[in-house]
Write a structure and sequence with these properties.
This protein is α+β, with helices and mostly antiparallel strands. It is built from 17 helices and seven strands. The strands form two sheets. Strands 3-4-5-7-6 form a five-stranded mixed sheet. A two-stranded antiparallel ribbon has the order 1-2. The relative contact order is 0.05. This is ATP-binding protein.
Length: 558
């Protein structure tokens, strides 16, 4: 059947009717822009609203006299992390939620509401611009995955954005003493830099983890319990009143093995969360005068912990990028292998369908035509002169031989005996035909095997065919043995020969041919493996092993 393709309209060229006014492109874009649904509002807006509200209130909460929870600044970093993980269509929801949380938080602290509101709204505008720049230079990979992306993130989000935000806070809070949690520009900039360095990678990596189940290979409950135990042990170790001296640097280095272990086991998401917990723990204990980052002076209570966090966070971010790139390459390779396997499996199915069609055409058309020619020659044999009858008989015998060869080829292309009698009978018949046709002697041994599915029997039969073809072409063997047996919970197929064997280990290995690739793919489709080794007969052994599944009962075969 011939299909007529519909005419293709050139892109960007539309017929214009002068009598019909055309709407503007801006109107078309606005009319087709999808409105945010309830799921987007709940998943993006609600957490940001709560985070901005909490971020406005935490600096005013006193846990102990003189100590306020302002070691991290939540609203800006959480908003930037959300914007890097969500599509552009959801940005409006995220920004509106952040503004709503900021307004509510400022309203709950009425004494400094105007100053806090102006400072937070200015930071939201800066975060929106930085997010647009980071996504513009991101490239084809995910956010914070490439080294160039990380460099831009450190420059824009961890240096420029905190400095600009701290400067804007100082401008709007000059006449309101105590309105903002940080007294000077340096402390505000350091707190913002540490917050963006810790929170944004954690949000981005967690979003990537939730979207990709393949990245959750290390997130088992035993690993999580061990990680929580190690973090608790680190907290107890830092709370011990150690004597000052050379032990303090060792206490500062103690979290490094934990962070590397988290990066190996949990990936970038686990390392980011561990770094966040360790940094908050170190800063809080330092403000209380404990741990390796104990406050040296009341005016610089967070400086040692912030310096350690910035140095360790920078190094961990680049190590995480290296790990993320390797994991992404590994996942892409797995996906490519999966697609290749699907294509190869489909190719084998199409190959079997084509073999069946060719076998049917040979048997029904070509062989029938040869039979008709043979009958016609039998009738003409009595009409020719006696001196020419011998040549006619020889021609008819050659024609019958060709017909038998075509019938044999047809049966090899589509073994109908396999469909009706099973694998054992099909292999026995195949070995008998090969023994009668060539110089290679075959011995088939099929032990009591459970009934298999039709595609499993066909794959095993094709593997035997291909293996024996390789023996004929390359092994120069005189004897080959075929074994089909059950070993434990597996079904084993072995093809041994006494030919030349495998090449020496020192020789250069050759690329596998199409026959070997076909056998490997059929073994993979069976759920097993194919191994090539030396045979006890002196040649090569091809072994296919796959686990037995719950197959049909003997009475189910039709």
């Amino acid at each position: 059947m011939v299909q007529v393709a519909s005419p293709v309209k050139p892109i960007g060229i539309e017929p214009v009717d002068p009598g019909v006014p055309r709407s503007s492109d801006a109107h078309d874009e606005i009319s087709t822009r999808p409105s945010p649904d309830l799921r987007t509002i709940f998943t993006c807006g609600a957490p940001l609203l709560a985070a901005c509200l909490l971020g406005q209130l935490l600096p005013n909460v006193s846990v102990v006299p003189g100590l306020r929870l302002h070691v991290l600044w939540l609203p800006g970093p959480l908003l930037l992390g959300w914007l890097l993980c969500t599509p552009r269509a959801a940005w409006r929801t995220c920004v509106l939620a952040a503004c709503a949380g900021t307004v509510l938080g400022a309203a709950l602290v009425p004494d400094t509401a105007v100053v806090r509101l102006l400072a937070s709204l200015g930071e939201i505008a800066l975060v929106l611009g930085v997010a647009a720049l980071l996504l513009r230079w991101r490239g084809a990979h995910s956010a914070l995955e490439g080294y160039l992306d990380i460099a831009w993130f450190l420059l824009l989000a961890c240096i420029a954005l905190p400095l600009c935000s701290a400067g804007w806070q100082q401008v709007v809070g000059t006449r309101a003493i105590g309105a903002l949690p940080h007294p000077d520009l340096r402390s505000a900039a350091l707190c913002g830099s540490v917050s963006y360095l810790l929170i944004v990678p954690a949000v981005v990596s967690l979003a990537r983890l939730l979207r990709s189940p393949e990245r959750r290979h290390g997130w088992h409950w035993r690993s999580i319990v061990l990680a929580v135990t190690l973090l608790g042990a680190l907290a107890l170790l830092w709370q011990v009143d150690w004597p000052p001296g050379a032990l303090t640097p060792l206490l500062a280095v103690a979290p490094i093995p934990l962070l590397v272990w988290a990066l190996i086991v949990f990936g970038v998401s686990g390392a980011s969360l561990s770094m966040l917990v360790v940094a908050v723990l170190g800063m809080q204990l330092g403000m209380l005068g404990m741990g390796p980052f104990a406050a040296p002076a009341p005016g610089h209570d967070l400086l040692p912990a912030q310096a350690w966090t910035l140095g360790t966070g920078f190094a961990l971010l680049f190590l995480g990028a290296l790990s993320e790139q390797k994991l992404s390459n590994h996942l892409q390779l797995q996906q490519a292998y999966r697609r290749l396997g699907e294509v190869t499996g489909r190719m084998l199915v199409v190959q079997e369908e084509e073999r069946t069609r060719i076998a049917r055409d040979l048997h029904d058309d070509v062989n029938q035509s040869l039979a008709a020619i043979s009958i016609r020659l039998s009738g003409l044999r009595h009409q020719v002169a006696p001196s020419e009858r011998a040549a006619m008989v020889e021609l008819q015998e050659n024609l019958l031989a060709v017909s038998n060869d075509i019938r044999s080829i047809s049966h090899e292309l589509h073994p109908s005996i396999l469909r009706f009698t099973g694998l054992a009978s099909a292999l026995d018949a195949f070995c008998i035909k090969r023994n009668a046709r060539g110089t290679l002697r075959l011995r088939c041994r099929i032990e009591d095997t459970p009934p298999l599915q039709g595609d499993q029997e066909l794959s095993l039969f094709r593997i035997v065919q291909e293996a024996l073809n390789n023996v004929d072409r390359h092994a120069q063997a005189r004897l080959a043995e075929v074994l089909v047996a059950v070993r434990g919970q597996d079904l084993v197929l072995r093809v041994d020969d006494d030919g030349r064997g495998m090449p020496a280990p020192c020789s250069r290995s050759l690329a596998p041919g199409l026959g070997m690739i076909s056998m490997e793919e059929r073994a993979r489709l069976l759920g097993g493996t194919l191994a090539v080794d030396r045979s006890p007969l002196g040649g090569t052994r091809i072994e296919v092993r796959f686990p037995l599944a719950a197959g049909p009962h003997p009475g189910d075969r039709q």
